[in-house]
Amino acid sequence: MPTTPAFADVTTSDSALRRFLHGLPGVDAVGLEARAAALGTRSIKTSAKAYAIDLAISMIDLTTLEGADTPGKVRSLAAKAVHPDPIDRTTPMTAAVCVYPDMVATAKAALHGADVKVASVATAFPAGRAALPVKLADTRDAVAAGADEIDMVIDRGAFLAGRYLETYELIKAVKEACVRPDGTAARLKVIFETGELSTYDNIRRASWIGMLAGADFIKTSTGKVGVNATPANTLLMLEAVRDFKAQTGIQIGVKPAGGIRTTKDAIKFLVLVNETAGADWLTNEWFRFGASSLLNDLLMQRQKLSTGRYSGPDYVTVD
Question: What does the angle CA 289 – CA 286 – CA 251 come to, to the nearest 5 degrees?
Answer without folding.
Answer: 145
